[in-house]
Amino acid sequence: MPNIDIDAVKAQIDAEIEKINSAPALEDFRIKYLGRKGIVAQLTASIPNLIPHERQAFGQKVNTLKNRIASLVEEKQKTLVEPERQAGAGGVDMGMPGIAQDLGRLHPLTQVIDEICAIFMRMGFSIVEGPEIETEHNNFTGLNIPLEHPSRDVFDTFYLKLASERVSQLTGSTGKLANRQTGKLLLRSHTSPVQIRVMQSRKPPLAVVVPGRVYRPDAVDASHSFMFHQIEGFMVDKNIAFSDLKGVLTILAKAVFGKEIKMRFRPHFFPFTEPSAEVDISCIICKGKGCSVCGRKGWLEILGSGMIHPNVFKNVGYGPKKYTGFAFGMGVERIAMLKYGINDIRLFFENDMRFLKQF
Ligand code: DAH
Asked: Quick check: CB of 130 below 6 Å from ligand 1?
């Protein structure tokens, strides 16, 4: 006879399983009875020592006991595992660092464009966009920049080589005469042609801001790119004065660069405005004392502006005696570089995450 009493074991397991309330305790229980050297294994090992006619009945009893223990363990496991997981023990380690989700963000240029557009929208301007492929007429002629005029040279331009049928398709004009009026197609070299588009399709009063990409065949270096962004703005109505331009641009500069910023309007020349002015702000690095960023001048140029030239009004069919207006245009990259202290324009276009993540 084996020295383990099978009936005593049966009674014992019920009492023991009842008390178990953790996964490790249940595992100990399983090993004690069903393990390789456990009680069931010992009982099985003792079968050959029995007298032959007892072996079958005893073997069946051991089998029944084994199945019973197995199902008790299985039952108990169901009641233990789930609550333990929720409590953070067992299979899940609540102390493990989480996997951080890297959120996307807006490009710094998009942020600056959005910020500037929002400032103008608060002043009642509306936002309009125009196409990047423009006609020679809108980019130059309509803006009082005659084709042979030397001022055209400063706007070095990418011209498109397109068959005249394609030009007609894109401009909506047909026939040689119409093509002669719209001219060749090009990648716009500034956002000013949208002035022509808006004024041709709408009547004053107008207060419009135009953000967008522009293109110039410049060699790429720390301050030049063949593609960059501008924001154009203009206001047209009866009795718009230069003082309105000054007021609007002062609000802009203080909102973007801070209330303490000083401004100055410096006479300049643009074919589409008369009088024209370039606008400087006091250097945000040295506060006007003179440093390497402002070239010891104490001032930083931020935009071009002026009163819309009567010829531009004539070109869009407005009465130049009836209406006056101002216009301005600024480079978004330049503003962003000054605002954030960025010293190389190429950083905006390389998409290096180490740069982009800082905004
Ligand atoms: N279009 C000019 C440029 O690209 C910027 C500009 C200057 C726009 C004066 C204007 C303006 O509307 O009035 O350099």
From this structure: no
Residues 149, 217, single domain; the answer is: no
Same domain as 271, residue 126: yes
At residue 94, the pLDDT reads 82
CB of residue 212 inside a 6 A radius of ligand 1:
no
Name the residue of 152, 154, 190 whose CB sits within 8 Å of the most ligand 1 atoms, as the mutation to test its pocket: 190
Same domain? For 139 and 124 the reply is no
- 225 and 126 in a single domain? The answer is yes
Residue whose Cα lies nearest atom 6 of ligand 1: it is 329
- In this predicted model, what pLDDT tens digit does every residue of 171-198 receive, in sequence order? 666 655 556 678 889 999 999 999 999 9
Considering the domain architecture, whether residues 245 and 204 belong to the same structural domain is answered as yes
Sheet with strand 227-237: strands edge to edge:
126-127, 206-215, 227-237, 324-331, 299-308, 273-282, 263-270
Give the bridge partners for 187, in sequence order: 133, 158
Q: What is the pLDDT of residues 14-36, one digit of tens each?
A: 889 999 988 889 999 999 999 99
Q: How many residues does the chain have?
A: 359
Ligand 1 geometric centre to CA of 277 (Å): 10
Stated pTM of the model = 0.72
Residue with more model confidence, 173 or 115: 115
Domain region containing 146: 133-187
Name the residue of 144, 192, 218 whose CB sits within 8 Å of the most ligand 1 atoms, as the mutation to test its pocket.
192
pLDDT average, residue stretch 114-130: 98
Q: Which atom of ligand 1 is nearest to the CA of 190?
A: 4
How many domains does one find in the chain? 3
